[in-house]
Automatic annotation (TrEMBL):
Name of the protein in its database record: Transmembrane ascorbate-dependent reductase CYB561
Gene Ontology cellular component list: chromaffin granule membrane; lysosomal membrane
Stretches that traverse the bilayer: 21-45, 65-83, 95-114, 134-156, 168-187, 207-227
Membrane-topology descriptor: Multi-pass membrane protein
Organism of this sequence: Phocoena sinus
Coiled coil region boundaries: none
Gene: CYB561
Domain Cytochrome b561: 27-228
GO BP terms, alphabetized: ascorbate homeostasis; intracellular iron ion homeostasis
Signal peptide: none
PANTHER family for this protein: CYTOCHROME B561-RELATED, TRANSMEMBRANE ASCORBATE-DEPENDENT REDUCTASE CYB561
Keyword vocabulary terms for this entry: Cytoplasmic vesicle, Electron transport, Heme, Iron, Membrane, Metal-binding, Translocase, Transmembrane, Transmembrane helix, Transport
InterPro entries: CYB561/CYBRD1-like (IPR043205), Cyt_b561/ferric_Rdtase_TM (IPR006593)
Cofactor entry: heme b
């Protein structure tokens, strides 16, 4: 009798993460690292490497954009799937910090390409890739500001957070997918500028870049799959359940449907 009562009074054990989730997260990280490594290989072997004060400055752009707006952004979205039983505040801070790192790295890549174009006298913002890139960057920054204001800034009420949360989740996934698509557009544009008609001759650079494109698409698809699995969502902690019940009581307690 005493042992059963002790078991009832003891705190509930953290729910273990589904085994399949762990495998998919590990697979996503392998794909993400492969994307970054293949990008570095492409730029190092076929584009001469990376440097700021030379003609190689342009190469800073694709590397930074892929690390920031693809790999780190994808990992930031997975934080709530990986850290399932940690304090919500800690998870929020990690989620926000990864987005800050992604933004700073992407900003370096953006400055690099504009500075390179200025030095060479090239036109800016004329291609579909550049339009999508600016759109992604602006949306990413606005999304971070809104997320900080609603979920990290202490002044936002629980009701406001609850109402904005669906839009925040949708926009986060949409911006990530748009980032992957924009990277694919940029990759194709770079190949056509450099290789021209030789692209159709199965040049080694073209083949490697095509592999990079497939890796980018695979990384985006796996991250999206993890995010859309409802049974893999982070379980509500005790304090979150209490807040949710209090909010429901406040909002529905005097409604006709509750009587």
């Amino acid at each position: 009798m005493s042992s059963s009562r002790l078991g009832m009074d003891s705190p509930a054990r953290p729910a273990p993460a589904p085994a399949a989730l762990l495998y998919y997260v590990a697979f996503s990280q392998l794909l993400g690292l492969a994307v970054v490594a293949t990008t570095g290989t492409w730029l190092g072997v076929y584009r001469g490497g990376i440097a700021w004060e030379s003609a190689l400055q342009f190469n800073v752009h694709p590397l930074c954009m892929i690390i920031g707006l693809v790999f780190l952004q994808g990992d930031a979205l997975l934080v709530y799937r990986v850290f399932r039983n940690e304090a919500k505040r800690t998870t929020k801070v990690l989620h926000g910090l990864l987005h800050v790192f992604a933004f700073v790295i992407a900003l370096v890549g953006l400055v690099a390409v504009f500075d390179f174009h200025r030095k060479k006298g090239y036109a800016d913002l004329y291609s579909l890739h550049s339009w999508c890139g600016i759109l992604v960057f602006v949306l990413f920054f606005v999304q971070w500001l809104m997320g900080f204001s609603f979920f990290l800034f202490p002044g936002a009420s629980f009701s406001l957070r609850s109402r904005y949360r669906p839009q925040h989740l949708f926009l986060g996934g949409a911006i990530f997918l748009l980032s992957v698509g924009t990277a694919l557009l940029g990759l194709k544009e770079a190949l056509l500028f450099e290789l021209g008609t030789k692209y159709s001759k199965f040049e080694p650079e073209g083949v490697l870049a095509n592999v990079l494109g497939l890796l980018l698409a695979a990384f985006g698809a796996v991250v999206l799959y993890i995010l859309t699995r409802a049974d893999w969502k982070r379980p509500l902690q005790a304090e979150e359940q209490a807040l949710s019940m209090d909010f429901k009581t406040l909002t529905e307690g005097d409604s006709p449907s509750s009587q």
